[in-house]
Input
Amino acid sequence: MQDFQVRFIEVGSPEAEAQLGQISARSKMDIGDVNATVAAVLARVQAEGDAAVLDYTERFDKVRLNAADLPVRKEEIEAALAGLDPQLLADLERAADSVRRFHEAQLINSQDVSLTDAHGSRVALLERPLERVGIYVPGGTAPLPSSVLMNAIPAAVAGVEEVIMCTPPNREGKIAPVILAAASLAGVTRIFRIGGAQAIAALAYGTETVPKVDKISGPGNIYVNVAKRLVYGTVDIDMFAGPSEILIIADESARASFVASDMLSQAEHDKLASAILVTDSRALAESVQKELQRLASQAGRTEILQASLRDYGAILLCRDLSEAVDLANQFAPEHLEIMVKPDVEASILAGIKNAGAIFVGEWSPEPLGDYFAGPNHVLPTSGTARFFSPLHVAQFRKKISLIHYQKATLMEAAETVERLAASEALDCHAAAVRVRREEG
Output
């Protein structure tokens, strides 16, 4: 039987400080070799355009294309929409509507500032949308339609004229239909079957086929992230992304199965993902430990779960919830869940200064933010929530997403979220919602 145990650590102890240091350091890996490889890709694409993109696509993605194959045709998108499972398409439409409504609401406070004196003299701060934005959507082990929605919809809502998407093709040169369907719903104007650092280079510098953009947004592997760092300045980028993380503040009232499910929903992302529980209840801590073992042993991605929990997971025992809040602010997590007695929620929330997104109450599991609720799931990681904000329509002020669902609302959305999670092969994301539907 595989061991999915996480460490018990007393807050304030040297072990706790070491654990936080280890987690913070996981995004600061040595990228010297990667940097050299990516720099060579960028330079060659900038100099040779399509020819370099096609060569790297054959070398890295193992598919041979010509320049005419790079743009995804309108007929392919229409075929994807027509052939997609009708229920999954309906789920995507519901999710896109939630994300769009949330980001459209931001336009209300995104207005020109203008001051005029008695003589008619005027000073103003004018806001205009970018002309062209590029979004990158990874391929990897599973399609990620949620990344399409979360990156493209805010750009479209902001009034960006062209939203260009790059995503790697499979070995047959195809793009997953669910990705094309999501792009159509989100307002993407053109799609190119290009992945990796060469896609970032093509978007940043332009080629004979791919237009140069003003900003690049979207997640990717280490090569994609290094490429975004290197082209920053030539174009704008969304943020410097690191491994995913969740920190949960919980008291004795929290359900161990809910807490464990939500920890696993982040741990399953990759071996560098971090899942931390901070609680003042030893009984809850011990129950969560048991639930982690039980639920992880039943899930997919067991190798990833085991490594993530072992290396970057922890259950931290604190003296009181005030200490838990202090630790959360120090860590500045990407995702912060608050599962405490309802009459304590407001005071805990008021104390939080640093987080990418906050999920309040037991009916607000993190996968709601990934797929459905509306606030963006592109969030600052590795402590950068101290000064970075979630992706939003106007990225000029620091903001924190808040998701506070009640039970009835979650029940209405639960099956949609579960199906969307299943479409991305993220079993624990679905389980974090399913456990509430079945045990609630």
